[in-house]
User: Which sequence fits this backbone?
């Protein structure tokens, strides 16, 4: 592989990784705040792609408004799922929540299949122009760069929100200790809803971006990216926001290079990484074993 | 100021508190002493809305607190330093204190109270940027108290501030509690360390298996034979 090829692949890898990071953030934030692996998260990604598709196709909205509507719709869906399906079970064992999450996932996938059919659809061709961009000798696809740019922008905004606003601090405090957070005057239910809203909005954005990139969307499109992003979240350290970012980028880059070498094994990379990380460092790259001081 | 009347609390079938009556008047330090599992923490958690009252009333400044969700309580002027401190271990010392002021909007006052807390606990100022979880036990207790003070409470509920601390640190903490009270904050103190608690309190209640068995002036209880035998090591 020449240096130029290497750099091209690197851009594609980071771009794919930033999409994984967007989805992984939802997994990790929800896990951080209610200790649930939200299996329906990958279907919110799918729904985001559909919402964007409908407003772009039938309302003829351009890219940015369609993206914002897709994010808003996904956020709403995430909040509704939490309120209707998860909140009533919050005080029961985690296995109940987990099974419910799988149920919600199946409901969304098969519900969309029943309503809109299983045939893949495509976004209108003019929503984003396919274009080749040259940086000297390095060729890149404008779509990859746009996806990378939007993902990075969303990640920076999220980081600012979580670390530098009162609501963001409340979110972190709630994920550490719900009772103590309530004693500070934080409405825990609102904070949990907000976490679902943000995570779902990011997933919805990712869904729309990927559906445009691969010019295809179908009711089951969330399954593989969902599992891979979950691996990314575990790789970085589940529950840790920077971990989701690091894990996503690493996974995207590794997978892209593996695909360049042998496309058949690329799909297995995520699972190999999952197994290795669970054996060597189950808390993830950025995770620390929690010690309590008395 | 704070009045608990005939309070009953259940955890499923377990009757944790039976007809508890406690009153705290403005400016006082009132202590609730008793053994492990007697119901001290449950009493505070009921005031803060973390556990529901089955019957009875809790009133604060003539407002009935029953049915208030926990997150609304600090807005009324009640700050609770929970058992085991429960600081936010991954947040910095400063962020922990900011969380304490979550229920306030007066930025100027919050800024002033940061200075007040740092003056009262100079070690927190030194460790401002450190994560709460890296502090020693005594410092964590100070952080938990500082965090509660950031709400500028009318009454401070303290749950076992001496737990797990070296005697010299306990002395320091109790000295600070006295100071906080001196500057106008009413205090309801729950303690297993009856000796220390009674030495700084105005009045005291003794709780045994969910029942108040004795109440009176703290100085009287310090001399009381049954209290001496049960809680003061003979």
Assistant:
């Amino acid at each position: 592989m020449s240096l130029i090829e290497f750099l091209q692949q690197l851009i594609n890898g980071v771009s794919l990784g930033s999409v994984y990071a967007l989805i992984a953030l939802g997994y990790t934030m929800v896990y951080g705040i209610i200790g649930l692996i939200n299996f329906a998260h990958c279907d919110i990604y799918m729904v985001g792609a559909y919402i964007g598709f409908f407003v772009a196709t039938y309302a003829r909205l351009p890219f940015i408004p369609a993206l914002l509507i897709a994010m808003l719709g996904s956020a709403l869906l995430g909040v509704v799922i939490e309120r209707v399906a998860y909140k009533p079970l919050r005080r029961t064992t985690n296995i109940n929540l987990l099974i419910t999450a799988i149920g919600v996932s199946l409901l969304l996938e098969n519900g969309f299949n029943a309503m809109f059919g299983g045939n893949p659809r495509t976004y209108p061709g003019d929503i984003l122009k396919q274009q080749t961009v040259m940086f000297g000798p390095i060729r890149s696809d404008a779509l990859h760069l746009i996806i990378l740019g939007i993902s990075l922008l969303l990640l920076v905004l999220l980081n600012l929100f979580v670390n530098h606003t009162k609501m963001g601090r409340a979110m972190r405090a709630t994920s550490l200790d719900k009772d103590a957070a309530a004693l500070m005057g934080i409405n825990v239910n609102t904070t949990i809803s907000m976490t679902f809203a943000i995570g779902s909005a990011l997933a919805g954005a990712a869904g729309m971006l990927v559906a445009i990139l691969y010019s295809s969307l179908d009711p089951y499109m969330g399954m593989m990216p969902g599992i891979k992003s979950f691996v990314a979240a575990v790789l970085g350290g589940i529950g840790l926001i920077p971990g989701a970012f690091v894990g996503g980028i690493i996974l995207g880059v590794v997978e892209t290079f593996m695909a360049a070498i042998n496309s058949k094994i690329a799909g297995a990379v995520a699972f190999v990484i999952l197994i290795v990380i669970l054996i060597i460092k189950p808390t993830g790259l950025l995770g620390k074993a929690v010690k309590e001081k008395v | 100021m704070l009045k608990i009347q005939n309070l009953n609390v259940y955890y499923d079938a377990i009757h944790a508190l039976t007809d508890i009556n406690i009153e705290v008047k403005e400016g006082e330090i009132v202590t609730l002493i008793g053994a492990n599992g007697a119901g001290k923490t449950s009493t505070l958690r009921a005031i803060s809305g973390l556990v529901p009252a089955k019957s009875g009333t809790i009133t604060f400044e003539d407002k009935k607190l029953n049915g208030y969700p926990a997150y609304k309580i600090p807005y009324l002027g009640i700050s609770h330093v929970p058992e085991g401190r429960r600081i936010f271990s991954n947040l910095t010392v400063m962020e922990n204190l900011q969380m304490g002021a979550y229920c306030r909007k007066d930025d100027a006052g919050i800024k002033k109270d940061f200075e007040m807390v740092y003056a009262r606990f100079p070690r927190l100022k030194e460790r401002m940027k450190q994560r709460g979880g890296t502090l020693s036990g005594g410092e964590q207790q100070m952080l938990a108290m500082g965090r509660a003070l950031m709400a500028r409470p009318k009454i401070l509920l303290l749950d076992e501030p001496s737990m797990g601390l070296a005697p010299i640190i306990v002395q320091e903490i109790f000295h600070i509690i006295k100071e906080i009270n001196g500057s106008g904050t009413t205090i309801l103190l729950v303690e297993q360390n009856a000796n220390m608690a009674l030495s700084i309190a105005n009045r005291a209640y003794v709780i045994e298996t969910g029942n108040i068995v004795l109440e009176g002036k703290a100085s009287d209880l310090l001399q009381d034979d049954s209290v001496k035998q049960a809680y003061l090591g003979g």
Strands of chain B lie at 2-11, 14-24, 29-34, 55-60, 63-64, 78-81, 155-159, 186-191, 203-208, 211-217. The interface with chain A takes residues 48-50, 69-75, 79-80, 82, 86-91, 95, 98-100, 102-103, 133, 135-137, 140, 147, 151, 164 of chain B (CB under 8 Å). The two ends of chain B are 34 Å apart (CA to CA). The mean pLDDT of chain B is 94.
